[in-house]
What we know:
Blueprint: H1 2-6, H2 11-26, H3 35-57, H4 62-66
Helix pairs in contact: 2-3
Amino acid sequence: MGELSKINYDLEERTGKFGENVIIFCKTIKLDTITHPIVSQLVRSSTSIGANYMEANGACSKKDFSE
């Protein structure tokens, strides 16, 4: 457990990289009438993680988190 606590987790960078990786993956999927809406939703939801993290990280008070 000691080693895990030494690892620096830069969530802003990791969430951005996650969104990029999902986009790269989704480009490999053949789009048709079934996969198109699923891929579209996957890209939107995976890239919004970083935006949501940055918004929450910039919040100043508990009220900011509840709005």
